[in-house]
Amino acid sequence: MKEKESAEKTFSCRSEEELEEERKLEQRLSRIRRKIVVLSGKGGVGKSTVAVNLAVALMKSGKRVGLLDVDIHGPSIPTMLGLEQESVQGSEGEIFPVALGNLKILSMGFFLADRDDAVIWRGPMKMGVIKQFLKDVAWGDLDYLIVDSPPGTGDEPLSVIQLLGKVDGAVIVTTPQKVAAVDVRKSISFCRRLGVPVIGVIENMSGFACPHCGKVTPVLSSGGGREIARDMKVPFLGAIPMDPKIVESGDRGLAFIDAFADAPAAESMREIISRVEAADGGGGSPVEGEKTAKEDGKMRVAIPLADGRLAMHFGHCERFAIIDVDVKGKKILMREDVNAPPHEPGLLPRWLGERGAELIIAGGMGSRAQGLFAERGIRVMTGAPADTPEKVVHAWLDGTLVQGENVCDH
User: Fold this and answer.
1) Quick one: CA torsion of 210, 216, 219, 222, rounded to 10 degrees?
2) Residue 276: partners with Cβ closer than 8 Å, 6 or more residues away
3) Count of C-beta atoms within a 10 Å radius of residue 86
4) Mean pLDDT of all residues in the chain?
């Protein structure tokens, strides 16, 4: 009772202006189907290159895509897409992103009078402008919003993840050497602490692709990204070799995957991007070399139950529906209802993992529990409606499952 009174008091203390900002932010974000953050614990690993090529490839495949550059101090997206001379327009409190075909782009670089200007801001100012980028920008209806974050686990990535609310996944970029791999592991831990699913790890600059014959030579050490993925129990999305054309395309303001589509590195990028797309619907991307639901067409889904319907509070349920599905055929193969074990801290992730669960669909789940499931390689979807398990699973298989607020995100 005291906790409820405290929460109501806190809610009532917020100004009408703050409440209106929250409503506006929620309204904007509700029109974006998937939100993917590109992260790295280390600078100079090619994170922006991955973000640009991922966004352009998705746009070329017919998706409605937004690309948000939240690197306040070193925005590079305008240069990489040849948009350095562009500036944003606004009307009646709205900011209109720069358009490149069906790709909508926003970056701090568009607001600088001189590209050599330095942005010297502390945390609260950066939080404010990132909030404005999400709340006041007319993104419209998007299939994907790709967020390019600066390196590390500081203000910008923390702010954008908190403001986005539900993040569908993070793509982690590293280079092979140990000094980068150590920092990248911290990015995965960062995601787990915040309850963000890790779509997978990309190893960039993995070998050198000869510009003449296309042969890839391991001039640097390789396998660092794969090792991180194996140790941290997250998917390995693939490796991208070094190619002089990647630098050339960035300097010319072109997306490499589009300008040099026949290059070996472009083929590697396409394979990686296909794995990111395969993570749609919460099923995760396949770990290279392992048999997964995406390969054999089958997956095991667990749904907490209350009175025969999906329970809104995951930790309070008494039973689970364990459902085997044919992902490719979009059909349910088998359902078994089982009693939940005693509610002990940390028990459910282990218990459901032992029963082969690969995906949890729930109404609400705390960030700590989501992190424990992520450590076991089990995907989590929250905000699902209190419907029958069959209806929930069929909606997920059809791509029509509407996810609302995580009702117990703590």
Assistant:
1) 150
2) 36, 54, 169, 171, 199, 200, 237, 285
3) 16
4) 80
- Centre a 10 Å sphere on the Cβ of residue 69 and count the other Cβ atoms it contains: 27
Nearest residue to 67 via CA among 50, 55, 75 = 55
Give per-residue pLDDT as tens, 99-156.
988 899 998 878 876 665 655 555 567 777 888 888 889 999 999 999 998 877 677 7
Q: 358 near 378, Cβ under 8 Å?
A: yes
Tell me, what amino acid is at 204? N
* The model scores a pTM over 0.90: no
- Nearest-angstrom CA–CA distance, 365 and 56: 33
What 3 state SS string does 65-104 have?
Answer: EEEEECCCCCCCHHHHCCCCCCCCEEECCEEECEEECCEE
Q: Interhelix angle for 47-60 vs 264-278, to 10°?
A: 70
The pLDDT tens digits of the residues spanning 289-305 come to 333 444 457 889 999 99
* Separation of alpha carbons 240 and 91, rounded Å: 41
CB 124 within 8 A of CB 20: no
Q: Which domains, from first to last, does the chain contain?
A: 16-282 (3.40.50.300), 293-398 (3.30.420.130)
Question: HSE on the CB side for 322, CA within 13 Å?
Answer: 13
Helix 155-164 with 123-135: angle, nearest 10 deg:
40
Find where tokens 């911290």 sit.
Answer: 186
Sort strands 103-107 and 216-217 into parallel, antiparallel or unpaired: unpaired
